[in-house]
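Possible race condition, two jobs.
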Amino acid sequence: LRRFDDKDIDLRGVKLLKVANTKFLLDYSDHSRTLTLKSRSPNLIFEDIPDFYLSNPPQIIVLAPLCNEISYEYVSKILRKFPKAYFGIDLQGFIRNIDESGKVSYIREESAIANITKIIKLIDDRLILKGSEIEMKLLSNQEDPNKIMEWFNIFDNEAIHIMTMGEAGSMIMKRGENLIKIPAYKPKRVMDETGPGDVYLAIFLYELINSDKSWKKVEEIGYIASAAASFLVEKKGPQGFETKNKVMKRVRNKNYII
């Protein structure tokens, strides 16, 4: 965490436990990865949130569990405390299926789908949900990308839903608006394929909260998020984080993966 502390990132909310944290073994092969769960942290509890966060309401809250550590009740308590906040959700940690050996697989588990569906309905209009293509297929029970995005209309809310598709780019939808298709940007090299979706969501949320939130602006933000994500794979870990000036230069150059 020292790398983040040195950048003046507030780490006061990080809780250190004497029990095992959530840890995975990652095995990459041909642009895909296999995860094996080695240990899992306890579920998050609302009472662990420091008072200084409770007394200074955030504009946006990101819910990104690794292994189902976030419950509906936890989200409900946060929403009651921060009713005006936007909520970013990374879908993967809500729907991962883990067998007795710890192997993580994408199998539709109805209890997990029911839980995230309740959370989507609970957060309603202030939700920004991001998932990979395979995760969104599991959630929607659809195969075609356009059908997947259309499926979210069942929630009858003003939430934003994002599907990232690797080299195929990403799609962004909101009920009543035109479907946005964002291309992927071509990286100079590929060294580490861990985390581009995380960067995409982080940049998208940051830019959104500092914008007028118009649909035209959302499209512009999608390009920025896609370009930022393309830098991450060029280096190992957080060394792939890049400045906004370089990200915007890549946006302007329009060097897409076709």
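Job #2 (started ~2 s after job #1):
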Amino acid sequence: MNISKSLIENDSSIQTYTRAELENALPPVISIIHKTEKAQSKYDKENTQFKRLSPLIEAMYIAKTLIRDEINKRE
């Protein structure tokens, strides 16, 4: 999550992370996406729990994209 936070905040400390560390950061983010989408699917779209999970899912998709972009920059 520290890597995701650094990328979202456009923090220069992201350069201290290796490509391997970036690659290792992806599975937990993907896991969170999967688990929250599964939890969200149990609720109606108007339910408070559904709405509560939406920003988390959106943030994790953004983090996933930013991590992949950073990995691709380092190829």
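The chain has a mean pLDDT of 96.
Logs attached separately.
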